[in-house]
Structure formats: structure tokens, C-alpha cells
Amino acid sequence: MTAADDPVPAPRVPPPPRRARIVLAEVSRRDNRAERTRAELAQQTQVGEALVRGLVRAQLALALRMSLVVLIGLGGLPWLFAIAPAVGRVTVLGVNLPWLLLGVASFPFLIAIGWAYVRLAERNEQDFTDLVQRPER
To answer: Whole-angstrom Cα distance, residue 73 to residue 15?
Structure first.
């Protein structure tokens, strides 16, 4: 056997590695935006100050609307009794209607207004939190 007859195996070349797509960079970019917004709030930058000012305005507007409801609901009753004295003389179970409305019915009314205010204020705060933590689109 000669050297020319002996087949020499060709060197084996490994296949190239498969390409992999890395998506972690996109996720970290979203977290960076939320962190940046929280940092702006903590450091009281102009952007953070504007965000907090918006929340305070929303809460103030809610408080003024609820106060207006109370003012009209309870403050309007004496006006009603002054304008229509016959309504003020109505009795229910031996008690005058003004006493029932202002002395008894006003408490459940105020509790309902307070409950509604707390729910709506919490919704404002949740909207603010969602805005701060919203990922960049």
C-alpha cells in the first residue's frame, strides 16, 4: 500500500453556532424608564414635581366636587324649608321632617359621601401609580 492509496480523512469542521436573539435588553429598558420616573419623583425634579402636582390637582378637584355635593345636599335643605314652609311643617311618625332630614338622614348621607370620596381618591392614586410604573411602549 502506498501513501497515495491511503485515504487521508479530511479535518472535520464543526458547524457554526446557532444565532440566539437576546430580548433581555428590551425588558431592562422598560425597567429603566420606571426607575427613572421613580427617581425623578424621589429627587423632586421638574418632571417629578409636575407628576405630583397633577395628582394633587386631581385630589383637590375631587374634594371640591364632593364638598359641592354636601353643600347642595345639606345646605339646600334650610333653603327648601324657607322657600316652602309647608314642607317644613310635614311630620313623619310625629317628628318634623326638618329634624329627620338634618338630624338623622344627614349622617348616612355624610357616610356615603365619605365612602365615595375615599374610593375615588384611591382610584386617583392608583391611576398615578399606574402612570409612574407604566412600561414604555
So the answer is: 81
